[in-house]
Design brief:
Mean pLDDT: 89
CATH architecture of the largest domain: 2-Layer Sandwich
CATH topology of the largest domain: Cytochrome Bc1 Complex, Chain A, domain 1
Shape: globular
Number of strands: 12
Distance between the termini: 38 Å
Helix content: 40-55%
Strand content: 15-25%
Order of helices and strands: EHHEEEHHEEHHHHHEHEEHHEEHHHHHEH
Structural class: alpha+beta
CATH class of the largest domain: Alpha Beta
Length: 476
């Protein structure tokens, strides 16, 4: 089980591989070897199969649309992540030990992770045991069973995970950035949750049972099976195991974050030796929004243009990277969270690890200058074309396994609600112009929408900044 508390931890993994020559046009048929098939049961459960050239292997993913975004009750952050743990506690029929022994007996791998917007449960197994996997997963999603003692034990494991993670300065920086960038919206806390809420978890057994009933419902889940899968056989197994599942998703009212009127910054003095580093976020729109086709298309065009800006401003070939990292060696690392997408307005995030003695404020200023130049229309046509091509086809070259396919489908559905968004996104990427790049840089990536966290070795205790501490950072 893992928590995506920071995309920085995965920064190296997010860099797309070198691209081969691919056709100029792309659609869902091009993204996947064969068009995914989609069915929905009468109880609202959605099932998607995507056949790939992977003889004998299937990826069985269960997407649950609940993440830290849904934790709206004060004092109850971290429960989406806690349930990622609880779902491995088993049922009366398949207790934890038997569940794990069965999975291992299949020769399968299983895991899960939590994000701001969703939780994803993964099983990769031989195709020949798919019906047994369906039975096993259907049982735990409908009949999860745990005692209060088991619940307390798991909350202790979550506390231990927090204690381990908090020793990493990146978690503290992400916590701080979230808090200063979001004062109302639940993106203001990480998927791990606030420490005070984690400490209170052991006394919230009854709340945990309600949480399960509120969000682990058939209409809030999608089963995605990719690989060597026969759709009709899959549906026969799913109908036999999931048809009796009942419940309707609770829809908490997630607070709307007001538009920023000024940037903010905060500095963290880290007590242990650490290279100076910075994390900067600019408030940007959601990946896709609106109900009308024209509104969704416009939102996707903005998202596509912002994705291109990541490549233009922060990728290795960019002038900023070449100057700071290669030529002047003022930074050890420079990058951005290019593939981060959210249900609600989120952050365009850039990061850097500096060499000793370098000024974080100066580097932030140079980041801003690079974005401002794009906003003024300083976009090289050749580089724009190269970045667009790279971005459009990175997802195609990365779809090497059934798990890759299932994960792309899950992420697309979680943040957009529609698999057809892949088609639309690829189409919008192809159409991104220099004017689009300049527009999004001007509208969303200015200093007035910028939030920054810097960290360096100091003598202060490494406590997460309070709201008052964040305010003391002032605008920048």
């Amino acid at each position: 089980m893992r928590v995506l508390f920071s995309r920085l931890v995965l920064a190296a993994l997010l860099l797309p591989p070198a691209l081969s020559c691919l056709p100029a046009a792309a659609s869902a048929q091009d993204v996947f070897p064969s068009a995914p098939r989609v069915e929905r049961l009468s109880n609202g459960l959605t099932v998607i199969s995507a056949r790939t050239d992977s003889p004998g292997i299937v990826a069985y993913y269960t997407l649950v649309r609940v993440g830290s975004r849904d934790e709206v009750e004060d004092g109850h952050s971290g429960f989406a992540h806690l349930f990622e743990h609880m779902m491995f506690r088993g049922t009366e029929r398949f207790p934890q030990e038997r569940y794990e022994e069965t999975i291992q007996g299949f020769g399968a791998d299983n895991n899960a992770y939590t994000t701001q917007d969703f939780t994803l449960y993964t099983v990769t197994a031989p195709a020949g045991v798919l019906s047994q996997v369906v039975e096993l997963e259907a049982d735990r999603f409908q009949r999860l069973s745990y005692s209060e003692e088991q619940f307390r034990t798991e909350t202790g494991a979550v506390r231990g995970e927090y204690d381990t993670s908090v020793s990493n300065p990146l978690l503290r920086m992400w916590e701080s950035l979230s808090e200063i960038a979001f004062t109302r919206h639940t993106y203001g806390h990480t998927t791990l949750g606030y420490l005070r809420d984690i400490e209170a978890m052991p006394e919230r057994y009854d709340y945990s049972r309600r949480f399960f009933r509120r969000f682990y419902t058939p209409d809030n889940c999608t089963i995605i099976v990719a690989g060597d899968v026969d759709h009709d056989a899959l549906m026969t197994a799913v109908r036999a195991q999931y048809t009796g599942w009942r419940g309707r998703r609770d829809r908490p009212r997630v607070p709307t974050e007001p538009e920023p009127t000024a940037g903010r910054s905060v500095h963290i003095d880290w007590p242990a030796p650490s290279t100076p580093r910075l994390l900067v976020g600019w408030r940007t729109p959601s990946f896709v929004s609106g109900r009308r086709p024209a509104d969704r298309a416009a939102a996707l065009r903005t998202s596509a243009a912002l994705r291109v800006v990541h490549g233009l401003a922060f990728s290795e070939p960019s002038p900023l990277y070449q100057r700071l990292v290669v030529d002047e060696r003022r930074a050890i690392e420079l990058g951005s969270w290019a593939d981060d997408r959210n249900v609600d307005p989120g952050l365009f995030v850039a990061h850097a690890i500096l060499t000793e003695g370098q000024s974080a404020d100066a580097v932030i200023g140079e980041m801003q200058a690079a974005l401002d130049a794009l906003g003024q229309g300083e976009v090289d046509a050749e580089r724009l074309a190269a970045v667009k091509s790279h971005v459009r086809y990175a997802m195609l070259t990365e779809l090497q396994t059934p798990s890759d396919v299932a994960e792309l489908i899950a992420h697309t559905l979680a943040v957009s609600g529609e698999l057809s968004t892949l088609d639309a996104y690829l189409a919008e990427l192809a159409q991104v112009s220099a004017e689009d790049v300049a527009r999004v840089a001007r509208e969303y990536l200015g200093a007035g929408r910028r939030f920054a966290v810097t960290l360096s070795h100091g003598e202060a205790e490494a406590d997460a900044p309070t709201e008052a501490d964040a305010s003391a950072g002032g605008a920048s």
